[in-house]
Automatic annotation (TrEMBL):
Bilayer-spanning residue ranges: 9-27, 33-50, 70-92, 98-116
Keywords, ordered alphabetically: Cell membrane, Membrane, Transmembrane, Transmembrane helix
Superkingdom as given in the UniProt entry: Bacteria
Membrane topology: Multi-pass membrane protein
Species annotation: Thiogranum longum
Identification of the protein by name: ATP synthase protein I
Recorded GO CC terms: plasma membrane
Family annotation (InterPro entries): ATP_synth_I
Localisation per UniProt entry: Cell membrane
Amino acid sequence: MEKGIRRLLCYQLVLVLAVSVVFFAIFDSLSAFSVLCGGGIAAGNALLAARCAHRDARAPERTPQQSLAAIYICMVQRFVIIAVLFALVMGGLKLDPLAVLAGFIAGLGVMVIFGTQQLTQQK
């Protein structure tokens, strides 16, 4: 696994654990577990994005149309997988929806901030 994605996952883990501790202190252990599940969904999203980027980088002979199609396919895959995971966690396991979303937003926020920092460092 590449160094950048490892660092991103570590930052996500730290922030999601912090949010989970807050939810444990305010609510209960089920809410804390729900936050961890939401953070796990965000981490899965980051891993899928990294896999798609790695796969796209290994195929330089693609035309621009093929690259765009690959990006769209990757986005649809990520959307469907995240939707299924949310349905499984909130519907199947009956976890606290607010806590799941809080964990997902925390993990996704790290991904957005980390990605923005990576883009500014490349310039």
